[in-house]
Write a structure and sequence with these properties.
The protein is α+β, with helices and mostly antiparallel strands. It folds into two domains: 42 residues; 171 residues, Endonuclease I-creI (Roll), CATH 3.10.28. It contains twelve helices and ten strands. The strands form three sheets. Strands 3-4-6-5 form a four-stranded antiparallel beta sheet. Helix 6 packs parallel to helix 10. The longest helix is centred in the middle third of the chain and has 15 residues. The radius of gyration is 31 Å and the shape is elongated.
Length: 296
C-alpha cells in the first residue's frame, strides 16, 4: 500500500527519514509534527526481528542476490566519487568512525599509540634501528622492521622483547628467509615519535634526540643498540690483536658514533666505513660497558 508524501505529493511505499532528509531537508520527527495523521517510518527494522523469523530468513536470502555496493574495492585515491565523499566528510568535520572507535577502546580491541617514555630501553631501540632497522610508510600506518641473523637467537629475543616494552605491542617474527629473521611492528607515527626518517637511511644526516645526549646512561644504551646491529669484536691471539669495531657506510652515523665513544673516555680510530678500538684494555672495558652480546 502506497501513501503520498505531504510535502511533494509523491506516492511512496514508506515515508522514511532518508526521503524527507534528502528531498526536503528536514528530519522525520519534524515531518511527524507537521503531518501527525500520516504513518511514517518502518514499523520494525530487520535487525529487530528474531533470527528464526521467516521474514528475517527471507531478507537474509535476498542479500545473496544483491549486487555489491558501487564503492567496494575503491579508495579515495582510485575513485573520484569516493574522494568526493571523503572531502565532504573532512569539510563538515564528520567522523564516521567515532562510534566504532569508542566501542573498540572500551573493549580493548583498539588502543591509541602509546607515549614513548624516555629511558634506556627507548635509547637502545633507537640505536639498533639506526643500525639494522627500517621504517616503512603505508597509506594508513607505518611499519618498523629490525633484521637479524636467524642464528642469533639472543639478539632476536632481546629486541623483540624490547620492542614490546617500548610500544606495548607484541611484534611479529617472520619465519627465517635466507638466514634472516625480521622483527616487525605496525603503528601510527612511528617515525615522528622516534625522530627517525622513513625509508632508506644510506646517507641521511643522523640526529639523536637531545635527551639521549644529556645522560651518560642513555648514551651507553644507544651505543649498545648501534654496536649490537653493526659492531663486531675479534681477537687474534698469535699477533695479540684486539679489535672492537662499528661498521657503516653512512658517514654521518660514523661521526656520531666516534663522538659518543670519545665522550665516554675512549680513544677510537676513525677509518673508512668503520670506527675501531684496538687497545686491549679499552676493547674489553668498552665491551663490558655496553654489555655487547650479553643477552642474559
Amino acid at each position: 500500500m502506497h501513501m503520498r508524501c505531504g510535502l511533494c505529493r509523491k506516492e511512496i511505499a514508506v515515508i522514511t527519514n532518508t526521503h524527507v532528509g534528502s528531498f526536503h531537508g528536514i528530519s522525520l520527527s519534524e515531518y511527524r509534527k507537521r503531518f501527525p495523521h500520516q504513518k511514517t517510518g518502518f514499523p520494525i527494522s530487520v535487525g529487530q526481528l528474531p533470527k528464526r523469523d521467516p521474514r528475517y530468513k527471507k531478507w537474509l536470502l535476498s542479500l545473496q542476490n544483491r549486487p555489491p555496493p558501487w564503492s567496494k574495492g575503491h579508495t579515495k585515491e582510485t575513485h573520484p566519487s569516493v574522494a568526493k565523499i571523503s572531502d565532504t566528510f573532512l569539510r563538515k568535520k564528520i567522523d564516521n568512525f567515532a562510534q566504532w572507535r569508542k566501542k573498540a577502546r572500551r573493549s580493548g580491541f583498539w588502543k591509541p599509540p602509546v607515549l614513548l617514555q624516555h629511558n634506556q630501553h627507548l635509547a637502545e631501540l633507537i640505536g639498533v634501528i639506526w643500525g639494522d632497522g627500517n621504517i616503512f610508510q603505508f597509506p594508513r600506518t607505518e611499519g618498523l622492521t629490525i633484521a637479524s641473523n636467524a642464528l642469533n637467537r639472543g639478539f632476536i629475543k632481546r629486541y623483540a622483547k624490547l620492542m614490546e616494552k617500548v610500544f606495548q605491542k607484541q611484534p611479529y617474527l617472520s619465519p627465517p628467509n635466507r638466514g634472516c629473521v625480521k622483527i616487525r611492528i605496525y603503528q601510527k607515527d612511528i617515525s615522528k615519535r622516534l625522530k627517525i626518517p622513513v625509508g632508506n637511511k644510506g646517507n641521511v644526516r643522523v640526529v639523536l634526540p637531545r635527551w639521549i645526549l644529556r645522560k651518560r646512561e642513555f648514551m651507553v644504551a644507544c651505543l649498545r643498540g648501534l654496536y649490537e646491529a653493526e659492531g663486531y669484536f675479534s681477537i687474534h691471539k698469535p699477533t695479540s690483536t684486539y679489535k672492537f669495531a662499528f661498521t657503516n657506510k653512512n658517514i654521518h652515523l660514523l661521526r656520531l658514533v666516534y663522538k659518543l665513544v670519545k665522550e665516554l673516555g675512549f680513544n677510537p680510530l676513525c677509518e673508512k666505513n668503520r670506527i675501531m678500538l684496538s687497545r686491549k684494555k679499552e676493547t674489553f672495558k668498552f665491551k663490558a660497558l655496553i654489555r655487547f652480546r650479553d643477552y642474559q
